[in-house]
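Example record for the data management plan.
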Amino acid sequence: MSLSNNFPAIKPSLMLDFANTGSLDPRVTFSRASTGTYYDGVTTAKAEQNLLLRSQEFDNAAWSKNRASITQNATVSPAGSTTADTLVEDGTDGQHFVTQSVTLTAAPYSVTCYFKAKERSVGIISFSSFRVNFDLDAEAVTVSSGGPTSTSIVSVGDGWYRCSVVGTPTAGATPITLSMAAAPTGWGYPGDGTSGIYVWGAQLEQRSAVTAYTATTTQPITNYIPVLQTAAANVARFDHTPTTGEALGLLVEEQRTNLVTYSEQFNSWSSSSSITANTNIAPDGTLTADTHINPVNSFYPYESVVIPAGICSFSIFINNASTAEWCRWRVNTATGSASLWFNFSTKTFGTFFPGFSGGAIVDVGGGWYRVSVQYTPAAGDEGARNWAVPCPVTGDNISVVSADKSLIIWGAQVEAGAFPTSYIATTSAQVTRIADAASMTGTNFSSWFNNAEGTVYAEAAVTSIVGPSGFWAVGDASLGFSTRNSIYSLSSTGTGLWAVSQAVNGVAQLGASALTGSFVANTPRKIAFAFKTNDTVGASNGAIGTVDTACLVPVSSSLSIGSLNSGWANGGNYLNGHISKLAYYPSRLTNAQLQALTS
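Corresponding structural encoding:
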């Protein structure tokens, strides 16, 4: 007989399908006295964009030349490669430029290009009605025509400047023109046939802010990233896998505090001279991600963090667009420092110094990864310590800085606990995310619950096997978990095993073998718990436990969702994971039905 023939004919009197509905049943009371982050599986943000073709190949036919020619690969570019060209004027009188026509809408655009002085030291960017002169010697900007929203000239080292113009053009085909002048406010002039200016990395973006340079070849580039959402206080979070959009269900987490201040503003950290602020679109869709480029003999921006006693979790978001391979991550100790190394190219970890353990590099979409590790300070190493962001190095267990490498970073977090939880943004002070609490009480509970017998079914996954992690509990909320009166619970035991609990007036009713099966962190599990006087058992992924034939059934008056007793007296034991489905059948299903239901 197939498993489908054993599915229960009786319909559940309660069905909470969090993954498919993405909403709370109106009978559920939910609270979290703070904001909380999650992915909604839908919202994206434009990240890297460059609408120009052959953005650093000005000799290519994509760029038309007017009274000018290109000397290809004439000098070292801002990226450290010999890919920068020289724009050379001819011997005629007029404007000397390269240009590429792009059809634009009447919306804000930014045009950028890197210039370096050669015989000519004035670079010019023009598009639509805007023409702006950039005097590289004086680091000055002159608007020659039009009214751009903003302009900038930023030194990036070795004589290079990134010059930008932001404005809203007239809709239609628009030439994007890069040229040079013989004078700071000049435009056309008689050329000498040999003089020129270095150019590299042209970029056109449809937005009112300039982001990090993205190179193109034969096609324009527009990349999107999943956007980390922020739920308001007392609003439930229905989380999704950021890379696929798969619905994970209701996210329930314990209370945590981000001990790092300025979690997104690394230019506010100590030794932050290597930080260029707000260069990239961050996982939350804002232009707040920073670029960390290591100069020689400068390892890291660091922040003083009060490291708690016991295990804690470090995490940070890093972008795959970075040029770094091996990275070193460290925290100061009483006698020196503790470090670990990971390879960002292969997404693997290398050497761990004592104190560090675990480690995960999780893809959150759009080239971003959240890197996390656990750290347990040795005796005497607790308290205020300098905690550094990862820095590019030349290899595993090597501290030599790769001065030509960079990392794009955002969202640093240090929290007390053996696993990382959802991101908590901070500025000048630590921030606490309050625990998620969901429950049903009163007639919202009694309308569907049968105290004589029943079966609770859940589909869920936990973040970590460090437990216990409560999936659900029914009982008497006024008494709480300390007496375990009227409570049924499914929880992880910290060893990758499931456990069930049933108690009456503080007296445990079930043996340890009432439920069988193991679990893996972040892997969904189907579990069920069927109860009746002298006839109680659990099932997990098709495996049935040992029926307890000598047990009483407590009287229950409420349901806790995602904890053993959330919102009850002595509340706690939070799931720290996702519940995709929770159902209740008002009868004790047969063992065969339990196996079919959980297979």
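Summary line stored alongside the record: The chain has three domains: 3-32+436-598, 52-219, 256-433.
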